[in-house]
Design goal:
Length: about 170
């Protein structure tokens, strides 16, 4: 992959964020001559993103159609992470650690209860916890936590490590 686009490339990827880097890496792995146009590949949102891969916790009303794609992506992510780590020789900080979403007040609690019901209607696994159960899982939570949702199927990645590994994989 070239980071300075020139004539003769099979693929020109505009933007070197995570999606652009994955696209460039995959194209190059398929034998295509690939160029990337970005003054600072691997920068941007990857430097400040939280790295949540939370198909279940981040479900929103009106996005039920998208849910199938999100869940399919979540199932495939561990093998993607392993492949990228092997190709780059770098750890991307992937963790299948689940998500704990907590309610700090009555409004938060109502919102999380609605989300929990939407998750259940959508056939997703999540568990409603009391404030005490949340603090048992995460002792540093404030004493006033009113409850929360535990979603064991969510994942996390370190976006800065991910971008660095993608850059290395692209260069190789």
């Amino acid at each position: 992959m070239r980071t300075h686009p020139t004539e003769g490339s099979d693929v020109l990827v505009i933007g070197g964020g995570v999606i652009g880097l994955v696209t460039a890496w995959r194209a190059a792995r398929r034998g295509l001559s690939t160029a990337l146009a970005d003054p600072e590949p691997g920068g941007g949102a990857a430097r400040v993103a939280a790295g949540m891969l939370a198909a279940v916790t981040e479900l929103h009303y009106g996005e039920e159609t998208l849910l199938g794609l999100n869940l399919a992506s979540a199932r495939r992510y561990p093998s993607f992470a392993a492949e990228l780590e092997e190709a780059s020789g770098q750890d991307i900080g992937f963790r299948a650690c689940g998500t704990l979403a907590v309610a700090l007040d009555a409004d938060d609690r109502a919102h999380l209860r609605e989300l929990h019901e939407l998750q259940r209607r959508s056939g997703l696994e999540s568990e409603w916890l009391t404030g005490r159960e949340c603090r048992r899982l995460e002792p540093m939570l404030a004493p006033g936590v009113r409850g929360g949702l535990r979603v064991d199927g969510d994942h996390q990645v370190d976006p800065r490590r991910l971008a660095a590994a993608l850059l290395t994989a692209c260069e190789r």
